Amino acid sequence: MRFDTPATTNPIDQLKIVGKPVDRIDGPLKTTGTAPYAYERHDVVPNQAYGYVVGSAIAKGRIASIDLSTAQRAPGFLAIVTADNAGRLGRGRFNTARLLGGPDIEHYHQAIALVVAETFEQARAAAQLVRVDYVRTDGMFDLAAAKDSWTPAAGLGAPADPGVGDFAGAFPTAPIQLDAAYTTPDHSHAMMEPHASIAAWEGDSLTVWTSNQMINWTVGDLAQTLGIAREKVRLISPFIGGGFGGKLFLRADALLAALGARAARRPVKVALPRPLMANNTTHRPATIQRIRIGATRDGKITAIGHESWSGDLPGGGPENAVQQTRLLYAGANRMTATRLAILDLPEGNAMRAPGEAPGLMALEIAMDEMAEKLGLDPIEFRVRNDTQVDPENPGRPFSQRQLIECLRTGAERFGWNKRNAQPGRLRDGRWLTGMGVAAGLRNNLLTTSAARVRLDHRGVVTVETDMTDIGTGSYTIIAQTAAEMMGVPLDKVVVRLGDSSFPVSAGSGGQWGANNSTAGVYAACVKLREAVAQKLGFNSADAVFGDGQVRSGNRTVSLAEAAGESGLVAEDAIEYGDLGKQYQQSTFVAHFVEVGVDVATGETHIRRMLAVCAAGRILNPKSARSQVIGAMTMGVGAALMEQLAVDKRRGFFVNHDLAGYEVPVHADIPHQEVIFLDETDPISSPMKAKGVGELGLCGVGAAVANAIYNATGIRVRDYPITLDKLLAGLPEA
Amino acid sequence: MRSFTYERASSPAEAAAAAMRTEGARFIAGGTNLLDLMKLEIETPTHLIDVNGLALDKIETTTEGGLRIGALVRNTDLAADERVRRDYGLLSRALLAGASGQLRNKATTAGNLLQRTRCPYFYDTNQPCNKRQPGSGCAAIGGFTRPLAVIGTSDACIATHPSDMAVAMRALDATVETVRSDGTVRGIPIAEFHRLPGDTPHIETTLVPGELITAVTLPKPVGGKHIYRKVRDRASYAFALVSVGAIVQRDGTGRVALGGVAHRPWRVEAADAEMPRGAKAVAERLLAGARPTDENAFKLPLVERTLGAVLAEAKG
Amino acid sequence: MSKVTLTVNGANRELELDTRTTLLDALREHLQLTGTKKGCDHGQCGACTVMVDGQRINSCLTLAVMHEGDEITTIEGLGTPGNLHPMQAAFVKHDGYQCGYCTPGQICSAVAVLNEIKAGIPSHVSADLTVAQQTTAAELRERMSGNICRCGAYSNILDAITEVAGGQT
Questions:
Q1: FRET label pair with A39: which of A59, B55, B218, B276, CA 20 to 30 Å apart?
Q2: Is residue A720 within 8 Å of residue A185, measured between CB atoms?
Q3: CB contact under 8 A, A125 and B241
Q4: Do the Cβ atoms of B116 and B92 come closer than 8 Å?
Q5: What span, in angstroms and rounded, lies between the C-alpha atoms of C45 and C38?
Q6: What is the enclosing helix (H) or strand (E) of A168?
Q7: Is A645's CB within 8 Å of B144's CB?
């Protein structure tokens, strides 16, 4: 189905099932421990052996020699895979460093061997017996030091230094100016399920049960790395224990399971040990950002500039921390620039809201600072600089933009009028209290997504697509979509996801999954409705689907009967025209946070949180709300505690486990409130929906930072805002 | 994890004797730290002596009016004991500030004292560490030091002791009771139990090989307000940046010990005498001679400020 | 190799295991009870929480052979998809999960936490150590903090536990 004109009224608009806060259909499986995750598939293939990964002990250099003999004599030993014996391996389109290193080492904990044994205990013990001699070479591990040797870098589809007007001329002449630097550290996805795979060969065909967000990308990269035809690779990933971008790509677990299974001539299962994950896999790169804003005295932005520096391995990409600055506020003179330095730290790549998450952490502090310079309320300052068109291309409107409504609704609900504009004035016992606000934007990305829909003789609708559910609720919103389209109750829909034998979907990433994958299901259901109508001799235009039946005129036939013994099947994809070019499609949020900062110790405690989102039609308010509160929680982590500590001499992330890399726990998070503004966006898709999974993270960190400033009068521009950065500025206890 | 043999001990003295008989033997009780380290092959015992069956899980009142806490009393049970809650609130508070409910249900009193450092370089077997591999060097010095020690350090090691409970025990003047392989028993004052790193950071306590902790005794209650204040980057389930354990009497006298700053729970008896004069005076005495790094120098003002808050709370 | 007999969810299970096998791996790999999750294998996340003789522990940091004769309750022992335990049902109702991987540990912990409060075990946030604890939000948050949820479902998990706690009093 082509989608190249705005949606008109369609069966989804009935909103009998879509748009309702129904419980997740996979909830009973998840809460009883019966949802099967990758490493747990005892059922799929017998005789599984265990693989254990050996990671490089150095950050850069090469393996001088590797002694496998002791490991090979270990009890239960079956096979070992190294770069020496793995055969010729390619590199996936989405990988920067090789997933099996050696003799050259590109980063710390790069996998250099997989030891396969009969049991997990034996594999782990044998892996420890692999003796490696390394030759270290010097590397660059310090972003601040590497910053000056940058090259311009383009983000996905973006020019390196976009801008309009004359920033260089306008900024210095602006009556009110801000020029400030901000830093964000490296972040780890730290999803709860480690990367894990079971691989089994049958002849030259490979099946991998894995934990992966993007089935189609990963099929391609696994085939390419192994040098086999992609038709020979099947990936199955029905349940994924969190991803956040860390499971977008082929990673070492899947490749090494495949190589291990080939070497051991039997199925092999591999999970990355938790202490290996932070350095072995990808992370969100640290940034150094410079923001300049010039405004008139009445608070109109005349010049806005945002530069960002980040680092990655040779061949890698930048963190696109400036992209929201191209769109979020008005202003005639604009510049943004993305700089990339070579670093020999582990590979950087996407983590939830890549670009916007760190970019807004900086930009939205800058806006708070600027509002203060202007003597304006930070909400009013943002309102005055709203734009309904793409500021770089004013002929291009936003399809929907309710940022002002988000801010005003939130202010009302949160009690923003109780905020004291003078920082450091409010005290509640041992706590200095304050409120902060930040805006957020995340774009709505359109991508082809296909599905197959079957109707059987019991009237059951089965949806198959390689879409994944990483906790987002895909199972449920896809079921709601199919139920709405076919006029059946939710319990008459079966959803099967995450299998490369199903039609290729958008996959889970970039908050594009919900809108695109359900639109693909919509397209397939339109086709199935036509097939039903055609079979019954109905005019498909006036056939009405409801209550498990289809009606036309005075004829009513049950779907079960219509399907007949052989059933009916339809497959289609949503394919987008250039509405994405004609309109800027984005989602918007206003975050409100109240904090208490311990006057003695500087510990920050989040007291209240509210997010007001405008993100098109909300397909399931219950699971969408969960996406937003989850992102808010991750934003609290980024604001207050998360930081991969870089050892700049040895070139690795030191705190590489869940005790060292602290993420928020229950006690850090208060009750969280989320409001979705009533919105449908007919430009986005027939579903009129967008995404919220990343939007929820956009701006939270800055809202926390601004609240801390409001509470204490201390402006911290380097994340995370740990207590050591506050102590010197706190009053005598 | 290397292979090991396993036995269940039948009596404390027998356990200690078994430990002497087998080279590379270790006792295992809760296992929450030992197994963690064995998985990484930081600990590589060849023989485990499971002491969980020993009858060392009682808390008894001593003839002196104190408490004798069996080595195997679980952290949860110790924190919840009525007598501890009433008379040794500091101990209860310190225990409850540590780890998680799950870990406290398993972790024992003796095991808690014997916890090894959480220095991330100690935990990474690719890195040199004098504590893990004597003579290999210290990768932490000059590296990521924010969580590490500021006082009592050496050129060989800047690790901290991670226990909260031990801070309370130090302030309460506990005694560690042990049995040795020859059956002899002794009591080790807590002040002498944990060592500073010096040139031998791998030797962390004054226990001799095979020596088994059987109990920890507390002197009779000293009254006063018991406050344990743990400061950390997240609100729970995290190790201390610094912690302050204090007992403050009505007249402002008392005693104080620190966690998160040194290779052992940190107490300077001379600093106790400064308590009536306030936090600054106490902190100066406690931290005299501190050698922080740029990354962890914040711990010094943090100790003083936290102490100030604790003393204010005691007054209030 | 060592022999061990466990009672798992009421059933007697005899196992012959590598002595190094943790309780967690005995459940997941040998008994194929994969509801209990391995998130970190080092006591840093709580995904492996089970109840042993009624008390919650991290099953990754204990050896199976140390549990001879013990009664183990895992998520599979609480309820089934067709017959949910009230805590499981409350998690579904309040969307107290996202990816689902920490969920069995959260639920086992939640069930045990309510029992711990009833048993009068104090917590870090209990204002007074000498009185009985109440089932407040602050108490639940502190006691549940050994179960990390990276998806950030905490606010909903708290609603689920609060509802079950209310039904119990």
A1: A59
A2: yes
A3: no
A4: no
A5: 9
A6: helix A167-173
A7: yes
Statement: residue A160 has pLDDT above 90: no
Q: What is the CATH topology of the domain spanning A287-444+585-729?
A: Aldehyde Oxidoreductase; domain 4 (3.30.365)
Cα B301 to Cα B119, B284, B287, distances in angstroms:
22, 10, 10
Query: What pLDDT was estimated at residue A149?
Result: 82
pLDDT at C168: 67
The reported pLDDT for the residue numbered A154 is 62
Which residue do the tokens 């502090």 mark?
A365
In this prediction, the answer to ipTM > 0.90 reads yes
Nearest to C151 among A33, A275, A471 (CB): A471
Within 8 A by CB and 6+ apart from A149, the residues are A341, A342
Nearest-angstrom CA–CA distance, A57 and A64:
13
* pTM over 0.95, yes/no: yes
Confidence at A732, pLDDT banded by 50, 70, 90:
confident
Question: Cβ B143–A647 below 8 Å, yes or no?
Answer: yes
Cα torsion A616, A622, A625, A631: sign: negative
Q: Of C1, C116, C15, nearest to C67 (Cα)?
A: C15
Domains A2-34+446-580 and A287-444+585-729 share a fold: yes
Helix (H, G, I), strand (E, B) or coil at A94: coil
Q: Where are the domains of chain A?
A: 2-34+446-580, 46-138+195-242+247-279, 287-444+585-729
Q: How far apart are CA C52 and CA C35, in angstroms?
A: 16
Q: What mean pLDDT do residues A567-584 have?
A: 97
User: What is the chain A residue with the closest CA to B297?
Assistant: A724
In a 3-state reduction of DSSP, which class is residue B199? coil
Domains and CATH numbers, chain C: 2-78 (3.10.20.30), 86-168 (1.10.150.120)
Characterize A400-415 residue by residue with b for buried, 16 or more Cβ atoms within 10 angstroms of its Cβ, and e for exposed: bbbbbbbbbbbbeebe
Q: Does A181 touch chain B (CB under 8 A)?
A: no
Please report the pLDDT score of residue A733 as a whole number. 65
Q: What is the pLDDT of residue C167?
A: 77
Cβ-Cβ pairs closer than 8 A, A with C, add up to 198
**Res. C126 pLDDT band, cuts 50 70 90:** very high
Q: Is C131 exposed, middle or buried (0-12, 13-18, 19+ CB in 10 A)?
A: exposed
Q: DSSP assignment, residue A723?
A: G
Element (H, E) at B185: strand B185-189
- CB neighbours (10 Å) of residue C6? 23
User: B8 pairs with which residues across the strands?
Assistant: B50
pLDDT band at A155 (very low <50, low <70, confident <90, very high): low
**DSSP sequence for B255-304:** EEEEESSSSS-B--HHHHTTGGG-HHHHHHHHTTT----TTTTTHHHHHH
Average pLDDT over residues C51-63: 98
Nearest residue, CB atoms, B103 vs list C116, C121, C146: C146
Averaged confidence pLDDT in chain A = 97
Contacts of B36 in chain C (CB under 8 A): 42-43, 61
DSSP tag of B37: H
Residue A565: both structure tokens together: 């013994």
DSSP H helices, A487-577, are 513-536, 559-563
**What does the pLDDT read at residue B213?**
98
pLDDT at residue A158, as a whole number: 60
CA distance A521 to A501: 16
What is the DSSP track for A213-252?
Answer: S-HHHHHHHHHHHHTS-GGGEEEE-S--S--TTTTSS--H
Q: Does domain A2-34+446-580 have CATH number 2.160.20.10?
A: no
**Residues of chain A contacting B126 with CB distance shorter than 8 Å:** 57-58
- Please identify, in words, the CATH class of the domain defined by A46-138+195-242+247-279: alpha beta
